[in-house]
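All the exercises in this workshop are built on plain-text protein records. Instead of coordinates, the fold is spelled out as a row of discrete tokens. Once this layout is familiar, the rest of the handout is easier to follow. The record below serves as our worked example for the rest of this section.
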Amino acid sequence: TNGGELANLVNWTLDSGSGIDDRLMALGSQGDVCMYQGTDPNDVSTFSLVGTYQVGPLPAGRRQVLSDGGEVYILSQFGLSLASKLMSGKSMAEAEKDHLSYLIDPLISRMMSATGDYLGWSVRSVPREDIIIIGSPQLSSTVGGDFLVYNTSTSSWSQYWDTQYADLVTSGTQVWASTYDGRVVRAFNGALDNILLSSATGTPIVCRVIPAYNALGVPSQQKTIPMLRPSFISASTPALSVTMLADYDVANYASVPSLPSSTSALWGVALWDVGLWGGALEPIAQWLGCRGQGYAITSQLDYACGGDTLLTGIDYWTSDVGGVL
């Protein structure tokens, strides 16, 4: 109806309550979704069109659709639509709230307006990590190629940047990725990066975490934040750099300090009852001085991990709350 060409065909298996039903979904490049049901396409009495829907223009390529776990995810300029929600009979404006990507739909729309005609857009599921990822084209060695990531456990979105992954696939319990420089690597594996098959050593994983802005219960008043306490569970203390952000400012560039040398003892060299054991996961939390002031604040944590590391939370100390003026 809206023009374009056939962009994708996908099988959708769903249970209507009286057994398993299979449907064939044909997607047009301008967002038309035609849903067919039946057993023999050559026989009009056993195969028919059961519905047509509109999801918005699709990006270039053949990776904008994902069939996973009894659901079909469709990536378009309007966001990430669910096939099960298309049949609700809602208008496009009402159905937008049913998008899995409802909170970041404006971001997807802006990104796709600029790069929707480039190959590289994709939707992938990584069950091992409980995530669904949206891949974007890499326009140069420094622009694009990042992933928008939906955590199915927490129903929250984040961004994976600087991975250099072109695409991912799950095989058994492992996740494999192709890179833009022609390598095949094992992704989401281990506590270090760049480990060769012939080696057991690698490089620290560099992280940047920016939580959502928080008004700390008083959105109409200025707050001063002199200290914060990030809490980790880690085998070694992460090398950390903290930058405070206020009033919805964007992220700042921050250099990540190098990891300190290990204080653990070496086997066969250290003295018994004198040397320190290493490798055990321990809670690490310490109040750090910072400088932040605004109506809404957050922190930008840039850190390097020398082993298994989990950021469990961030506490803020508010020393002064000003008036509305």
Confidence is low (pLDDT under 50) at residues 261-266. Helices lie at 83-86, 92-95, 105-115. The first strand starts at residue 6 and ends at 15. The first helix runs from residue 83 to 86.
